[in-house]
């Protein structure tokens, strides 16, 4: 049985069909006047989401997964947008919690993460200290469900197996391995993620030399794109993401990528040789000949005039955007030096107003 409140628990649906919703998103994008859309990539209608967070609602007799809409708990029996493998695990988890009230005492939330070709990492969130009794019961639960479990409470983090989930992404007849951290960013829709990677790879021709990537995260784009370039210089400000990227480079036996913990502003200063950084010791920045820039900024976009001017120096810009409105503002500046070669829309988040965009710009 699907959630009877389908559409109320966080944006799963609207009165319109999926196809009609997608047409509305495309129209809203076109109304911005950014440019003609070359392709729009639809998502599976169900079973596409690889991670989710739920509240735990306790009533007198039982425990339920829940989300909140206007401060009202919406009890979740099924979450159709989740990967089917994760839904099966959650079904078994709820049965276990209801049969073990001591284990779920002061349990207030769970986080679940999986992959199209991987297992499952469960994070259980408590308002109480976790002791050896909890750890023993959690070990038994992990074995029953075939999952990895992390327990969290204030000042506590208990890792029963590993704190990472290893995922596999297949694109262009290659398989890439990635570690995913429970509190790290990863693309939530693995089917759309593959299409985004295919788009980025299609923007790289035989004239490719070196790549600069900003906001590289854990290497979702970095790893596959490294096959197309002589060298890649990737920067990211989050320490946890750099840690994941370092591990992913080793997992995939990639040695032509140098990653550094630098902000966008610091990256500009480093490549303009305005400032030296100890983090860049041993790296020959003069040796790079960048033919492409890939940027995947936050929802606020680039915005900064200095960064946009810096981007204008690159022959090819691959811009991945999760916000068409800020994308439009950035493109108004970039079109002074570049022309749009391709626009592809990706329905990363069905049943919401969000839309992912990929734009390939080439210098005039």
Choose one word for the global shape.
Answer: globular
Looking at the structure, the CATH topology of the largest domain is Rossmann fold
Span between termini: 55 Å
Total helical segments: 9
> Major β-sheet, in short?
8 strands, mixed
Question: Any key phrases for this structure?
Answer:
alpha/beta, Rossmann fold, 2 domains, 8-stranded mixed β-sheet, 9 helices, globular, disordered N terminus
Give the topology, please.
Layout: H1 18-31, E1 39-41, E2 51-58, E3 63-69, E4 72-76, H2 84-99, E5 107-114, E6 120-126, H3 132-145, E7 148-153, E8 156-159, E9 164-171, E10 174-181, H4 190-202, E11 210-214, H5 222-225, E12 231-236, H6 239-251, E13 257-261, H7 264-271, E14 290-295, H8 305-311, E15 316-321, H9 324-334, E16 338-346, E17 356-363
Parallel strand pairs: 1-16, 6-7, 11-12, 11-14, 12-13, 14-15
Antiparallel strand pairs: 2-3, 2-5, 3-4, 5-6, 7-8, 9-10, 15-17, 16-17
